[in-house]
Amino acid sequence: MSCARITLILMLFSSSKAWHCSRSEPLGLITEDIRSWQISASSSYPNRWDRYCSTNYARVYETGTKAWCAKRKSPSEWIQVDLGVAASISGVMTQGRCDGREWVTSFKISYSHDAFHWKYVNDAYDNHRLFEGNIDSCSVRHSYIDKPVIGRFLRFHTISWKGHPSMRVEILGCQPCKQPLALPPYAKTTASSESSPNKRNSPSISGTAQDSYLLTKGAWCAQKSDKQPWLQIDVGPPTILTAVSTKGLGEFRKKRWVTHFNISYANSTTGPWYNYSESGNDYSFTANTDKYTERRHYFASPFKARFIRFYPTKWKGKQPCMRAGVFGCPQNGICQKGYLRVAEDSPCVENIAYGRKSYVNNKRHFKRHVGEWSGSNQAQRAVDGDENQSIHHCTILDNFYVSRPFWMVDLGHSTPISGVVIVTWQGKNLKTNSPVKSSYYDYMRNLRKLTVYVSSEKRRSKKVEKIAKESNKCGYVTSVNEALFQRRIHIECMKPMNGRYLYIEAEGAEDRWSKVFSAVLCEVMAYS
Ligand SMILES: *[C@@H]1O[C@H](CO)[C@@H](O)[C@H](O)[C@H]1NC(C)=O
Ligand SMILES: *[C@@H]1O[C@H](CO)[C@@H](O)[C@H](O)[C@H]1NC(C)=O
Ligand SMILES: *[C@@H]1O[C@H](CO)[C@@H](O)[C@H](O)[C@H]1NC(C)=O
Ligand SMILES: *[C@@H]1O[C@H](CO)[C@@H](O)[C@H](O)[C@H]1NC(C)=O
Q1: What are the residues whose beta carbons fall under 8 Å from the beta carbon of 435, sequence distance 6 or more?
Q2: Whether residue 285 has its Cβ less than 6 Å from ligand 3
Q3: Which CATH code of 3.40.190.10, 2.60.120.260, 1.20.120.1810, 1.10.3720.10 fits the domain covering 180-197+206-329?
Q4: Which of 29, 114, 139, 297 is most deeply buried (CB count within 10 A of its CB)?
Q5: Which residue from 263, 267, 306, 331 has its CB within 8 A of the most atoms of ligand 1, so it is best to mutate?
Q6: Ligand 1: which atom is nearest the Cα of residue 306?
Q7: Are the beta carbons of 247 and 295 closer than 8 angstroms?
Q8: Burial, 198: exposed, middle or buried (Cβ in 10 Å; 0-12, 13-18, 19+)?
Q9: What architecture is domain 339-366+375-429+437-527?
């Protein structure tokens, strides 16, 4: 096992914070989210002797008299469930065969991270706990595991039974690292090339990377001439990834799906890229055999990354077409620097303005107004990832020396922009420096409007008119209804925008007795 892998497994299993489960629920035997290949047993009663006996029937609420039945009547038989991703397990449900004759009356439970090293669930005296099983063949029994255990694999050991050791099971708990991450619209997808599989017959299938989410009905398709096609998913902040899933092209007359693919992953599109490997070898994933069935792979070696690329290596049809998903542990709480939640409960997405070069068209000295503070490089404070609303952490825009003050950030390259979140300070609640409070408070009340522009043109001059035109306008917020005086202002662009430079212009109210106005930008965050 590589060092990196051990570190990740430790991250997955030892961080108690990740295991704060607010809710314990059935983990997928009943719903069949746990597929038949994830269930195995020490032995099974041959299907040809009893066709209602199969490991795949070891599911609570299974129909008829279906169940898993051990081959032998022995107290050392077990049925094993691979949960795919580590779970915190707080209980189990068990049921007999519902045939009036066969059920398990007592059992033990063991669990494992790797299906190799096993531990038993113990009782308060540190002995293997003997769970009371069922009392008839059909009623469902629930047993708590008082101190939840963490594992990916779970075994039920049949210790005693009535008739025959036959059972149905379900596992209760939570899996914080089995959440879908490649969800539209947050996860961004791109590809080496794109093509519509057949424009004339299926004009609704775009074949673009945007159609590659598992939730769509189409798929992404590469061009036929693409020698090394790939599909890339950006999950946002570097995240522990535990599984991938693929589907074929849905609504299309012809058959198109990927049968084999490789994966590589990185934190930046410029690399370094790592090939996903198991036991030291690059791993080739076997994928789909039809249009609609989702095929999922759980990683034996979870990894942490922001970008994941699928490289189709073999496919059905003239070009590779696929839908893809990624699963892992989404971030809870505050996003790491460089990412933001646009709405309170939305996932962390990249703040494309973070740490970028910024500029204000106003080179005045702030000393007179803000005491000891010197204004050098102050434009940068709006993109330093620090939302602290102390004025010393913020950028000030005002009209002392320019009539049209604006702040600008260079995003580095032309990029789509969907909106901007601005954290402001309103001159209130400042613990120190009360004179600052009063003057700034008035200046800020003179502010009438903040307008956001996106342009491919760089302006370091006072000629803001060239930028401040309708076609470059993303959106604005005004003092009407106090919208401008919120701590956090969200401006969603009125139309899709694309550009390298983002501008914020401040305007004052004409009818105030003082014509001096200020806007204090503590942080400006932009998202695609
Ligand atoms: C990505 O960055 C995280 C730290 O945020 C690091 O733990 C991880 O190993 C990196 N992954 C790759 C693929 O470089
Ligand atoms: C990943 O796999 C590709 C194709 O097999 C290979 O060319 C490349 O060198 C590999 N990268 C690493 C980092 O091993
Ligand atoms: C995919 O992985 C296989 C090994 O399983 C390797 O032979 C092949 O070169 C890889 N292809 C790409 C495109 O990375
Ligand atoms: C904000 O910055 C000020 C001055 O640097 C500091 O005293 C204060 O503790 C900071 N507040 C937070 C919430 O970090």
Answers
A1: none
A2: no
A3: 2.60.120.260
A4: 29
A5: 267
A6: 1
A7: yes
A8: middle
A9: Sandwich (2.60)
With a CB cutoff of 8 Å and minimum separation 6, the contacts of 505 are 404, 405, 406, 450, 451, 453, 464, 468
Taking the centre of ligand 2 as the mean of its atom positions, its distance from the CA of residue 224, in whole angstroms, is: 23
User: What CATH fold (topology level) applies to the domain 25-174?
Assistant: Jelly Rolls (2.60.120)
Cβ of 271 closer than 6 Å to ligand 2, yes or no, is no
282 in contact with ligand 3, CB cutoff 6 A:
yes
Find the 522 Cα to ligand 4 centroid distance in Å. 12
25-174 matches 339-366+375-429+437-527 in fold: yes
Residue nearest to atom 3 of ligand 2 (CA): 275
Instruction: Please tell me the total number of residues recorded for the chain in this structure.
Output: 528
> Tens-digit pLDDT profile for the chain (528 aa)?
344 554 555 555 554 445 667 789 999 999 999 999 999 999 999 988 999 999 999 999 999 999 999 999 999 999 999 999 999 999 999 999 999 999 999 999 999 999 999 999 999 889 999 999 999 999 999 999 988 999 999 999 999 999 999 999 999 999 999 999 988 989 999 999 999 877 665 666 789 999 999 999 999 999 999 999 999 999 999 999 999 999 999 888 888 999 999 999 999 999 899 999 988 888 999 999 999 999 999 999 899 999 999 999 999 999 999 999 999 998 888 899 999 999 988 999 999 999 999 988 866 544 444 433 444 578 888 999 988 877 788 888 888 777 888 899 999 999 999 999 999 987 765 555 554 555 677 788 888 999 999 999 887 655 777 888 899 999 999 988 778 888 899 999 999 999 999 999 999 887 666 778 888 899 999 999
